[in-house]
Amino acid sequence: MTDFKAIETFMWVVTLGSFRGAAQKLNTTQPAISQRIAQLEREVGVRLLQRDRRMVLPTPSGRQLMVYAEKLIGLRSEMLAVVGDRSAMRGVLRLGVAETIVHTWLSQLIKSVNHAYPNLSLEIEVDITSNLRTRLLAQEIELAFLLGPLTAPSVSNRVLCDYPVGFLASPSLGLGTRQLTVHDLAKFPIITFPRKTPPYEVVRSLFNRPDLPPMRLHASASIATVIHMAIEGLGIAVIPTAIVESEMTDGRLQLLSTDVQLPKLTFSASWLASPDTVAVERVAELAANLARGGVIVDGPPQARH
Questions:
Q1: Which class for 221: exposed (0-12), middle (13-18), buried (19 or more C-beta within 10 A)?
Q2: Cα 192 to the chain's mean position, in Å?
Q3: SS3 191
Q4: Which of 95, 96, 158, 305 could join 144 in a cystine, given CB atoms 3.0 to 4.6 angstroms apart?
Q5: Quick check: helix, strand or coil at residue 63?
């Protein structure tokens, strides 16, 4: 009788194009992957995979088997979603996260996942949106919380939240008593997100004007660094206000009043379509509920009233 694990392994080898990728996805070793494929080929009596220099490709018989493998994996996922208990959700989910999420509700999400799916582990990587997008499309991560939604073939998106962006500064700069214009703001260094991010480009276009002083724009991939620099009075931070609520409450930072309108940052959960996305979709659901200000309880997420 054909082993279900071997079929799942075959599907991921074909999907990812390598034994190494399938081993990482299934949290096992390449020899184990090779053994499962060899076992499957012995049982069906035909060769299913062929290798070239760069990737593993299915043979004609392998392409036929792939159709049935995807159906089987999809049916298993559907079955677990309908009748399985929480402990049936197991394995490792590779999650990529933009740092704004780290500073808002990521820790709550981890607690919620631990409670709802105790046998599901998260491998979390923090990066900028452009890198997370590349890694998602390369299937190096299964789920990404990033600036989105993404427009790419086979990508599913769920909008999580919108965060207003503000100009924040230390009270030591003495800027909190009047409405400021872009000319007032341009007198100070501006501290914001790193290059190749939408917020950076918005800020750069705002201050890169001939009628303004030469732009002094400090960019950092570390939000913690941006916040620390602003608290130290080294410039004006342009970041979502949601990530510095405690610093504003205790007076270390103040939200400046300006006549400048900045676009909100929209974050989404994004993942690639796959027969086996139940765990990804469940975690995305938890994230969406938290991002909306919901309360996670024992059972399906419920909104806070």
A1: middle
A2: 20
A3: strand
A4: 96
A5: helix
**Cα separations (Å) of 218 from 24, 153, 201, 209, 286?**
37, 35, 12, 17, 35
The token pair at 259 is 């006549």
The strand ranges marked E within the chain are 49-51, 56-58, 91-97, 120-126, 143-147, 155-163, 165-169, 190-192, 217-219, 236-240, 254-255, 265-272
Q: Let me know: does 215 contact 207? Beta carbons within 8 Å.
A: yes
Query: DSSP 3-state assignment of 162?
Result: strand
Q: ∠ CA(295), CA(120), CA(10), 5° rounding?
A: 135
* CA of residue 113 relative to chain centroid, distance: 15
Transcribe 213-255 into DSSP letters: PPP-EEE-S-HHHHHHHHHTTSSEEEEEGGGGHHHHHTTSSEE
Each residue's pLDDT tens digit in the chain (305 positions)? 567 788 888 888 888 888 888 888 788 898 999 999 988 888 888 999 988 767 888 999 988 898 888 888 777 776 766 665 555 567 788 999 999 999 999 999 999 999 988 888 899 999 999 999 999 988 889 999 999 898 888 899 999 999 999 999 999 999 988 899 999 999 999 999 998 888 899 999 999 999 999 989 999 989 999 999 999 999 999 999 999 999 999 999 999 999 898 999 999 999 987 766 778 888 999 999 999 874 444 444 443 33
